[in-house]
Specification:
- By secondary structure, this protein is an alpha/beta fold.
Length: about 400
C-alpha cells in the first residue's frame, strides 16, 4: 500500500480543460490519456465543461492542457503559474502567443475538402460558416483558394451556431434555392452541416443529389444521427491530444521544446450519405465510377470495369478524361491510395496487410505506387501523420 501511495503522489498532476461534451474535445482527452498510459502514469483532472471552468480550489499540479479560447480565459489559466499547452486553433496575442500550441491544420483541411469534392465531379461549390471568426476565415480561404487554382468559384454564406439556435431557416433556404445545382458545400462544423440538411429537407432539395454537404469536423454521434448521415473531415484530434501531452512532458522535465505551433493535417474524409454521389450526368460513367469505388480494393483492372459497363474502352477512357481529368486506371489507383492513407493513419496494420486490404497485392508494390503518388514511403507517411 505504501508503494502505491508513493507512486500516486509522485506522478505528474495535469489538469485538462477541454470541453468533453464536444466530439473533438473527447478525442483530444482520449489522446492525452493514451500518452499518460504509455509514459505515465499521470494523475489527470478533467473538467468536462472545458476551459471556462477554473481549476479546482486548492489544486496544486504540474501543468495544464487547455483550450485557450479567449484573452480572458488565457489570463486566468496562465495566472495559475504552471506550464500550459494550448490545443486551440484560435491564435491569441500577448503572453498566450508564447504558449506551446498544437492544433488542426485548417489550410490542409480546406485543400483536402476541395480536392475531394472536385474528384467527385462537382463544378459548383459553396462554403458555410461564421466568417467573423479569424480561424473560420482561414479554413474558408484555404478552400476557396484551392478551388480557384482549379478554375472554380465559391459561393459564401455566413451562418454561425447562434443562427441555428435562434431559428432563422428562411435566409438559409433562400440562399440554397439560389445556388446552381448540383452544388457541393463545405461547412465549418457539423452544426452548420446539420442545419443545411434540415433546410434542404424543408425546401425539397435532395441530399446529396442536389446539394452535397461536407462538414469540416467529425463527431460520429452528431454526423450519424441526421438523415442523410453527414460526411466529415476526420480531424486528427487524438493525435493533437497525444502531441500536447508530449509537449507537457517536456515542459515538466524542463527539456527543450520543438518549434511551435504544431499543426497536424487531417486524417482523411469520412464519406457518409451526404456526399455519396457523383456530379456527372452520364449514367455509364456513374456506373463505372460506382463499380470502381466498390471493387477497387480487390484485384481489378480496367477490363473488369468494361465487363460491368456496356461501353467500348475508347468511350470509357474519353468519359473519364472529359469529366474527371483522369483515366479509369488512374481512378482505380486513386481510390486504392486513399484507402491506404486511411489505414496507415488510423491502424497499426503492417504494410503487407495494408497493401492486401487496398488491392495492391504486395507491400513492395504499394510502396512503389505510394511513393509515386505522395513522394514518400507508406511508413514515412504513417510516421508524419501520426507523430507530428
Amino acid at each position: 500500500m505504501q508503494r502505491v501511495s508513493q507512486t500516486l503522489t509522485s506522478c505528474p498532476r495535469v489538469t485538462v480543460l477541454v470541453p468533453a461534451y464536444l466530439g473533438w474535445g473527447r478525442s483530444i482527452i482520449k489522446g492525452i490519456s493514451a500518452f499518460s498510459n504509455r509514459h505515465g502514469p499521470w494523475h489527470l483532472h478533467i473538467e468536462p465543461e472545458g476551459e471556462r471552468r477554473p481549476v479546482p480550489h486548492g489544486w496544486e499540479g504540474d501543468g495544464i492542457i487547455a483550450r485557450l479560447s479567449t484573452p480572458t480565459v488565457a489570463r486566468t489559466i496562465l495566472g495559475v503559474g504552471v506550464p500550459v499547452v494550448n490545443v486551440s486553433g484560435i491564435v491569441l496575442d500577448g503572453p498566450a502567443a508564447k504558449v506551446p500550441r498544437v492544433a488542426n491544420d485548417r489550410g490542409a483541411s480546406g485543400n483536402m475538402a476541395a480536392r475531394y469534392l472536385i474528384e467527385r465531379g462537382f463544378r459548383n461549390f459553396a462554403y458555410v460558416g461564421p466568417p467573423k471568426l479569424a480561424y473560420v476565415r482561414e479554413h474558408q480561404d484555404a478552400f476557396t483558394a484551392a478551388l480557384d487554382r482549379e478554375g472554380h468559384a465559391c459561393h459564401l454564406h455566413a451562418l454561425g451556431q447562434a443562427a441555428e439556435r435562434a431559428g432563422r431557416p428562411s435566409r438559409l433556404i433562400e440562399w440554397l434555392r439560389s445556388l446552381p445545382k448540383p452544388v457541393a458545400i463545405l461547412t465549418w462544423s457539423n452544426v452548420q452541416g446539420r442545419a443545411i440538411i434540415d433546410a434542404c429537407r424543408q425546401e425539397g432539395l435532395l441530399v446529396p443529389e442536389d446539394v452535397a454537404v461536407l462538414s469540416g469536423d467529425d463527431d460520429p454521434v452528431l454526423c450519424e444521427s441526421c438523415f442523410p448521415q453527414l460526411s466529415a473531415i476526420g480531424v486528427a484530434c487524438e493525435q493533437i491530444g497525444e502531441k500536447a501531452a508530449e509537449l507537457m512532458q517536456l515542459l515538466i522535465e524542463r527539456r527543450p521544446l520543438p518549434p511551435t505551433p504544431i499543426l497536424l493535417p487531417p486524417l482523411g474524409i469520412i464519406t457518409r450519405q451526404s456526399t455519396d454521389t457523383l456530379a456527372v450526368d452520364n449514367p455509364d460513367l456513374v456506373q463505372a465510377i460506382g463499380y470502381i469505388r466498390e471493387h477497387a480494393t480487390q484485384a481489378i483492372h480496367v477490363d473488369d470495369v468494361l465487363r460491368a459497363v456496356p461501353v467500348s474502352r475508347r468511350s470509357l477512357e474519353r468519359m473519364f478524361h472529359d469529366s474527371l481529368g483522369r483515366s479509369p486506371a488512374q481512378e482505380i489507383r486513386r481510390v486504392r491510395i486513399e484507402r491506404a492513407k486511411q489505414l496507415l493513419a488510423t491502424t497499426d496494420l503492417p504494410i503487407p496487410k495494408v497493401a492486401a486490404a487496398c488491392g495492391f497485392g504486395t507491400g513492395e508494390y504499394l510502396a512503389t505506387i505510394f511513393r509515386q503518388a505522395t513522394g514518400m514511403t507508406p511508413l514515412k507517411y504513417r510516421t508524419i501523420v501520426r507523430n507530428q
